């Protein structure tokens, strides 16, 4: 049986198409590169300056100078390119990232994301999330459905500081897949073994049911 994070990452990988330029956020999103369909070729981008991020390295392949934005070791694909951080952010802000797959602390009924700050906890900064939420053409959120305390992370209104006003396109959790339309959040899929009643019980936001 797949672990929860792997299940979410694999489902997110199914959304990618040939030729996409994709930025992966910290946490679950970094696992997406391990689950790419074999018939799909994409270009993984990291905001610290690499286009062509490959799968996680084996212990013998680790290069301490080759890391992603989350400081995790990565590999490089054949044909990859390196550039400065300011050029990388220019790509994001210029609308050249096709898909950004990000984690989140909360997502609300309007599709707004809070994913950078928890009151009372020390933080390093907003990182690239704010720029990606504004600049990427499509935003997919991958996260656990609930907090460690069992509270829903899909809420009516975010109580944590918003990262941006821009609405996301899709949410993927270990329980379900939601999309966002002009009418609000839409439940499109249930994950294997999950019931509609379970999703209703664990989701604090209102949503429309349109199961495939």
UniProtKB/TrEMBL annotation:
Q: Which Pfam families match?
A: CoA_trans
Stated name of the protein: 3-oxoacid CoA-transferase subunit B
The major lineage groups are: Bacteria, Bacillati, Bacillota, Bacilli, Bacillales
Against PANTHER family, the record matches this protein to: KETOACID-COENZYME A TRANSFERASE (PTHR13707), SUCCINYL-COA:3-KETOACID COENZYME A TRANSFERASE SUBUNIT B-RELATED (PTHR13707:SF57)
| Organism superkingdom | Bacteria
Hey, which family's this protein in?
A: Belongs to the 3-oxoacid CoA-transferase subunit B family.
- Keywords, ordered alphabetically: Transferase
Q: Which GO terms describe its molecular function?
A: CoA-transferase activity
